[in-house]
Amino acid sequence: MTALPEPAPRRAPYAPVAALHGFLATIKHGRTPGRVDVAYLKGRSLAKGNEWALLSALKFLGIIDAAGRPTAIFRRLQGTEDAAADTLRGLVETAYGPLFEQGIHGGSASELRAWFARRSSASQAANATRFFLELCRLSHIDAPAPNGRRGGEAWSSVSGDPPGRIGTPAEKSARRLLISKLPSYREWRGTPEQFLRLVEATRDLALTL
Length: 209
Hints:
- The chain has one domain (17-148, 168-206).
- The chain contains 9 helices and no strands.
- The chain has helices spanning 17-28, 38-43, 51-61, 81-95, 97-101, 109-119, 125-138, 169-180, 192-206.
- The termini are far apart.
């Protein structure tokens, strides 16, 4: 009997982390939708130009099913901060099972990028790493920051240097100062759309320093 080939591994999500923040903030302030699709995201100005990437990420994590319908997990993400973080942690550890089984999540950011390049997409490895590390931060999973430091050091998609650019100490210091002023979506009191615009503007400004 001919052995069936092993299924190809799913590609790791690489959506912008600002889109993830915007989505999580949005569902905190509204009822559970019947379906999360491109129209839903566009209607709330989420993931502009990256709607499909965010939908793929939500399906990868099990937040919505293949048809875009919210899963049973969805409501738990609408709960308290601690409950949402615990729920997200479970989703991350399940969705990225092979990475955790191999202990790759405890390595350096460069090791993570290499792993995603081999197992998912070489062209999107850096973005997949950034997205994974932000998920770890939100769900309180210990993982390296993009600059190689560990622990609870806060960071976001705008904290690292642009690809191919190291940056002087002064530039890095200016970026860290700018990013430290950015509130988390849990602290935000405005609308999700305003938060998303703030994150995107901060990211764009930080990458010019």
